[in-house]
Amino acid sequence: MNPVNFFALARLVAINWPEIDRHLSSSQLSVSRPVNRPNGGRGLSTITYDRRDLIPLQAKNRAAISEFYHSIYTHSIPWALHTKAFSKANRGRGLLGNDLDSVIRNSQYGQTVGIPIGPDTSLVIAECILTAVENLIYPKLPQLVGHRFVDDFELCFRDHASAEHALAVLQEQLLEFELRLNPRKTGLHVPPINFEPEWIAELRRFGIRNTSGQRGDLVAYFDLITKYLLSHPSEHVSKYGIKRFNRFIPDPRNLNLLQSLLCHIAVAEPGSVKEVVESLLFLRNHGFVLDARLIWETLNTVITNSAPLGYQYEVSWALWGLIVFNIPLDPSATVALQSSGNSVIAILALDAQRRGLIQNLDTTRWAGRMTANDLREEEWLLSYEANVQNWLPSVGVPDHVGADVEFGFLKQHNIRFYVP
User: What separation in angstroms does the CA of 87 have from each of 58, 79, 122, 281, 295?
Assistant: First the structure.
């Protein structure tokens, strides 16, 4: 999110926090209401830290919204805070919901659908809207039992007919805010119900020995990941399964096998490249000598295959992996990424070029973004960071960042969003 627009949004939320918090406190279902933890790493965090902490609540009580953050209609924010009828009759500035709507649209380049994923402010907006949905549901379902964690509802009923009625009520009230249930994640289930997916439980329980049996265990474990990747293609099986290796020290005799298994997963399921890179980095930092050729082949393949498909996350992490391992890009990977309009990819590529890891990189597209107008557009991060890092020259003026009031202030105070 553009930092200038985000500052305006964060300031608006902070100034009006007592009013917002009163609205959020009216929720009877939420276990994800944002609260301030003085010793936490963020300004706001959910009351419940982790979804696994919900298991006792699920055990006591015993539906998700489709692409929730991407689906939020910004004009529904004032509806949630002030009711739909009042908001439609009062559209001017000075009303908190209208001001939030305006600032968020500014941060989304005028778009009225979707809010950024990640900032604490988005959690606040999400909770405001879903708290309002709850407040419409309870008069129609006064005996409701259950909980909500962000956009996941789990509601409990005595019989199937009551559950069907509640599902219809929930969808009806969501439509009041231009939201819909995700049909892939919505269902009616008869107890007993698993508290977590089978694949998570089995991967977590799987033991990898430190004895001579470790080699077989590694093969069996990655076979298990492959099995669940095939049977649950929409779940983050490989990401979850590989996380254990970012702190795993193998028997040195099994190093080559482990590295090969990790790299195989990265190519087969590029969405797990972040976890693979972190696992390999852990091994290197603990004194293991890795196969640089294998890493070169793996990460370059991920970039070459993923960039044409627009998989920016995968390309970014593979490119970062090449940088931290000081491994060059091959020509096909260079060609694949240089037309990207993603600022993170562009910045990483420019840094790799500075380090001599990329040859013959065509920066024409990115060089055209070094203007004052681009500081207010989607590629603002590239326009700012390439300037302060002295990677690309300004277009038409000596210093388009320094001449801008807000971004010039950031540059003057040596603010960096990317630390090479």
Answer: 36, 6, 20, 52, 56
Instruction: Give the contacts of 214 (CB within 8 A, at least 6 positions apart).
Output: 208, 250, 251, 254
- Whether 135 and 106 have beta carbons less than 8 Å apart is answered as no
Look up the pTM and report it: 0.83
CA distance between the termini of the chain: 20
What is each CA distance from 420 to 124, 249, 349, in whole angstroms?
Answer: 32, 28, 11
CB under 8 Å to 379, separation ≥6 — which residues? 341, 343, 346, 369
pLDDT over 90 at 133, yes or no: yes
**Dist CA 98 CA 95 (whole Å):** 5
By CB atoms closer than 10 A (0-12, 13-18, 19+), residue 286 is exposed
Identity (one letter) of the amino acid at 21? Answer: D
Q: Which helix (H) or strand (E) holds 352?
A: helix 343-354
Predicted confidence (pLDDT) at residue 40 exceeds the cutoff of 70: no
Cα–Cα distance between 121 and 12 in angstroms, integer?
10
Provide the greatest CA pair distance for the chain: 74
Q: How many Cβ atoms are within 10 Å of 334's Cβ, its own excluded? A: 23
Q: Which of 41, 45, 36 is nearest to 18 (CA)?
A: 36
Q: Return the beta strands (E) in 216-310 as ranges.
A: none
Distance CA 237, CA 233 (A): 8
CB 319 within 8 A of CB 348: yes
Q: Give the distance, in angstroms, between the CA of residue 149 and the centroid of all CA atoms in the same chain.
A: 16
Q: Which of 254, 179, 246 lies closest to 214, judged by CA?
A: 254
pLDDT at 57: 53
165-174, 183-192, 385-394: which range is least confident on average?
Answer: 183-192
